[in-house]
Structures are given as C-alpha cells and as structure tokens.
Amino acid sequence: MYRKKRQVLPFLLPGLAGLLLFYVAPFFGGIWYSLTDGSFENTFVGFRNYTAVWQNPMFQLGLKNTLELSLICAPLLFLLSFVISVVVNRMRPAGSVFRNTALLPYLMPSSAVLIIWLLWFDYGGPVNHLITLLGGSRIEWLQGASLRFPVVLLFLWKNMGFCIVIFLAALQAIPVSLYEYATLEGASFPRQAFTITLPLIVPSAFLVFILCWVNAFRIFKEVYFIGGAYPDEPIYTLQNYMNNMYSKLNYQNVTTAAYSFAVIVFVLFGLLFWLQSRAQRGLS
Amino acid sequence: MKQMSGLRLRILQGVLMILALVLLLPIIQTFLYSFSSIDEMKVFLKTRGSYDTTRWMEAHLIPNVVSLEQYYQILITDNTVLRLFVNSAMYALMIMAGQAVIIPAMAFGLSRFRFRGKNVIFFGIILLMLLPFQVTMVPNVLTLRSLGLTDTVWAVILPMWFMPFYIFLIRQFMVGLPNELIEAAEMDGAGTFSTYLRIILPVCRPILGAAAALSFADCWNLVEQPLTYLAARPDLQPLSIQFNQLARENTGFEFAGATLYILPALFIYLFFQEDILSGITLTELK
How far apart are CA A275 and CA A272, in angstroms? Predict the structure, then answer.
C-alpha cells in the first residue's frame, strides 16, 4: 500500500475528471432543468414538470413496462443461472464445456441473430410447431402481450452465461468436505443447494442479483430489435419514452423522467442492500 | 463433491447438452444459411409471416446448393455492410483505447493508495454503476451539448471511456494483490509509474483480458447511445442499429452480413475465454 499521497494524482485524475464532467456535475446540474419550464426565460416552476410527467400516460406505460419486465427478467435470470451453476459445478469436464458455451452469446451482437429469433417465433415457425406437437395451439408470438416472451428469452439467452461464470467462480471456493458431511447426514441434492451453497455464496450471489437487475432495467436493445422504435404497448419501455422526448428536444421531460426513475432505482437498491446486510448478519 | 448416481448424471448431462445446443443454434443457423443462394433464401423467407393455420413454415436447415452469392453481394457488389462494419470497428477501437489508458490507472489509484476521500470516490462509482442508461444519458447529454459534441462520434465515445463497472471490476482484482509485490518493486528502486507499468499491469492480465472482452461486447453491440446521440447522422451509426433495417430491405444481407458481424466477436471470445474465466474467478466480487 502506497502512502505517498501525491503520486496517486496522475492515476486518478483523468478518470475522475471524466466522471465529474460527464456524470456527476451534470447530474446535479440537470436537477435545475427538471425544475424549470424550458422557455427562453427558463422560469422556475418547482415540481410542476414532475406532476406533468407522472400524469403522462406514455411515461406511466413506459415505467410500468420497464418495472414489470425487470421484475420478470431479473429473478428469472438469477434463479436459472443459480440452478444451472449448481448442477454444472457437479459435473466436470462436461460442465465446463457447458459454461463456455453459455458464455458465447454474451459476446454476440443481438441484432445479428435477430432474424433467427423472428423465424423461430413465426406463426408457422418451429416454436409453434413444437407447441402443437405437444398438444397446444399456436400463439401469435410477434404481436400483443406475447411479444414479451421472445424479448425476455433473447435477454436470457444473452445474459445467462456471464451470471453462470460469476456463480461458478464463487461455488468453486466452497470446501468439498461440507457436501460430504451433508451427504452423510442424508441431505438431498436440492436441499444442499439451498441450505449450504446459497448461504455460503451470499456476497457473490448478491452481486449477481444486482447485476441481473441493472441489466434488466436496461432491457431495450431486445425491445428495439423486435419491436422497433415505436413498439406495441406491452413492450413500450421507459427508454422508448425518453428517446421520443429527446428527439422532440423536450429536455425538461427527459430530465424529469430520468430523475424520477433514478429515485426509484436508488430506493430499490437501497432496500436490497439493507436486506442483504441483515441477511448476512443473520447468517453469521 | 458428492457423486451423483450414474443414471441421474447421464440424464442431467443430456439435458445440459441439449440446452447448450439450443443456445448455439442461432449462431449455427446463421452460419449455415449464409452459404445458400439468395433466391433460395427468398423462397424460404417468403414462407414466414403467414397466419394460415393449415400451413407451416418450410423446415430448412442446410442449404440445398452451397453458394457464396450472399458473400459476393455484401463484400463486392454492395459495400453498405462493409462501411457500417468499419464504423463499428472504429467505435470499438476508439472506446477501448481510451478505456485502456483511463480505467486500469484509476483502479490502481483506488486500490493501492491510501488517501482521504478514497471511500467516497469508490462509493460514488458503485452508485453510478447501478444507474441504468435511461438515467445516465441525461447528464451525458447535458455535457455533450454544452461541449457541442452531439451528432458527432465523440458523443458515443467519450462517456464510454469512464464506464464505472470496469473500474469496479479491475479495482476488486487489484485489491487482492499481495503487498509484497509492490514492496519488492520499491526495494529495487522502481518508481510508482514503472511499478504500475512493469509489475501491476502484467499481473492483472486475466482481469484486463476479461474487461477488454466484456467491453468489446458492449462496443460491438452499441444500441442506446448511437440511437439517441446520432439520430440525425445515419452515416455515423454503427452496424448494430442499422443492420436490421438493411436486412429487411435486402435479402441476402441478413445471413452473410450477420456472419461477418459475428466473426470478430467470435475471435475475441476464443482469444479471451480463459481470461474471462480466470479473471472473474480470482476477483473478490462482493
């Protein structure tokens, strides 16, 4: 550990200056925008922008969909990658082949495989074929409420591998003897996963959960590719609203919507951090 | 590790292998389709989009006749895809060059020095990391506008130089490095800067490789930033947001173009795969 304080400056300054210039300073400066009316005199209007934006049906729709989609995607992504990691961890080398395969989509550009996605979910496509073979009836995947399904699946396809890699890294640090003891005691495999494994990897699992959620909030690429800039109502996200406002040069609404969302995000993550620290104390 | 009984293990392995195949299928399909002739693809793609319940889309996996027609079209007759490909490569290169200078240095400053305000800065970086793009785009836009950089390539490049997630990732790795490493270097009379260049950076190879690969994935798949900042300049947009439009309008672009588009990502994956795995494993992620 270096104690010569002055030597830290050349390392820290470029990054710090950039963060201040592009993120921190304008973040606080932008609060002023959200409190003025955007006219030539830029009159102070208090919270009037906020009440207007909150009553805007498109904002409500975008916010509702973004929250709903993230509530579907984040827990699903988390649980799926946890279960798969626990299983994969128990079978090497086949397991590491699977892990490496699952990581590949993370690096793939989604727009390149989009066409395949549209083919799969076509009304006469393989997914519907499979459903009818299993005795169900065809679904119009690319319209209305069922649009969410391909969107969520594309998201999972892309993000699962990275979560599995983080989980597996944490799982490998657990001593094998714990499982041997549990097996002697007669604990079943799923029971071991939730009573031994999960508590031991709480810190990493928490990070994965947060990352899942941050990524799920960003769910837009998938929507944009499948639904375009003006998608059907069930997948109209907050980002669509912001982009439309931005292209209309309505900065007041853009900043107001962004800060409203920031408050929600901070409250949510604050709550999660609080729960995690309580859970950790409870365990130790 | 508990050994599972033979049969259960076989079944689980089978399930995993099928899942792996499904995960790879979009990439394999794209690759296979790219070698069929344009007319064959036109006929095949016409069978979709029908809502006639008595008909199915044509089942098709392997081209009837292997042809390089699609590649001839995107590489020689029409250079639109190539031009956008160059745009994408330019963004990836410019963003990653800046990140390489700024991010590891900042992670080093935040991990191996003791000074006042360090924890405040680190906490701020974590907060920024949690904010989704919908929120951070606002401060970015305000600064870009007052610098007059909107509708230029810099609007996309500059904010990406300071991605908080990579600062966090590399910092977590550097925190875990043994102190002896630095003490030994100091004993040899090495200055801070040469210790950083000659000792710290080489030791951090796995996490730097991992961060580079992950960051490349971001850059190659840029959607939100160019869509917002470069809405008025389609000529500056990368392949990621124009590809679908192009593919819809020109049969033959979608598969050969996609293959071309996937290839660099595939190389990066193969080249940095070990780094991603060992880098993440060795990092204290909590």
Answer: 5
